[in-house]
Amino acid sequence: MLKALINKMKNIRFMICLLFLPFALSTSVNLASDLEVTGTLSCEGIEASSINTTGTISTSQDITTDQVETSSIILSELSLDEIYALSDTITINANLIINSPSSSESSFLETSWVLRDHHDFELGSHGWSHDKRNTCDGEDFFLGGHCAFSHEEVSKKFKLPPHNMVKISANYHMLDKWEGETAYMKADGKIVWTMTGTSHEQGADICGGKQPDAKFAVPVDVTIPHSGGILEVTFGSTLKGDPCNASYAIDDVMVYLR
Ligand SMILES: [Ca+2]
Ligand SMILES: [Ca+2]
């Protein structure tokens, strides 16, 4: 009876330690060939290098495997070396409790950045202190820009959960006639990033007024120790004149924590 059952099964590579059958089976079953399960498999324990099933696998003891790919998994305990996202995001719809290892190894929180906020300004100003948005191509919007920001600062207070470090990244646009002025970003009132910009007559006119632009989409990427519950991020420039002649804009402001 067992031999007949095995002959019907294809396309799974694993050893079944104890396969639930209508009769008691006290020894292990080792399969050298593939096994495909399209229904439910119940047993007391599974050890495998790879498990593939379109149905359900349940076990009252341990499952040990090098790799599992599934759309849903329910566990009481999970031990992993690494987690990879099949899409861009890993979503956890529950409280996440992370215990530091007893050894000197770094914990998950100490080695991985968690994206807290991403402000792309496509649909609104995300609560920044000035809400004027612009776009160059009619599709990708940013905060500020032509006839909006020059000598004025723009800021936002981020309310943060417990953390030890923050990473702030953004894109900074220097539009139209910059003459060596300085762009800057502050974190909690302290300047943490600067860059100077100068427009050249032969430069490209990408956006804003008709003048060539100094720099477009300058990457900002700053990591600082930070543990407070509020982080104030401020952008500005040393431009003095009319924002219709020279201006700055920001886009894709992202705050990461760890
Ligand atoms: Ca944008
Ligand atoms: Ca321009």
Automatic annotation (TrEMBL):
The keyword Signal applies. It comes from the Eukaryota. Residues 1-26 form the signal peptide. Keywords: Signal. PANTHER family: CALCIUM/CALMODULIN-BINDING MEMBRANE PROTEIN PCM4-RELATED (PTHR39767), CHROMOSOME UNDETERMINED SCAFFOLD_1, WHOLE GENOME SHOTGUN SEQUENCE (PTHR39767:SF2). This is Uncharacterized protein. It comes from Blepharisma stoltei.
